[in-house]
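Lab meeting, item 3. Inverse folding demo.
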């Protein structure tokens, strides 16, 4: 295996790690809706799809 192969493999592993991080990232469930603050089940993050959509839109805007 030459140096280019090693570099390519390292890059591939790094990309995988970043993808995994991104999937795992985002807010953890807190027991309250992240958008409106409504109390919800502990393993949920939003009370309904509308809140999730609004939250995601707000975050997409902030990122842009
Ligand atoms: Zn909500």
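The presenter then showed the designed sequence:
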């Amino acid at each position: 295996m030459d140096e280019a192969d090693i570099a390519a493999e390292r890059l591939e592993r790094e990309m995988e790690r970043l993808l995994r991080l991104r999937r795992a990232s985002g807010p953890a469930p807190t027991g309250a809706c992240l958008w409106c603050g409504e109390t919800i089940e502990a393993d949920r993050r939003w009370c309904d799809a509308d809140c999730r959509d609004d939250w995601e839109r707000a975050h997409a805007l902030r990122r842009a």
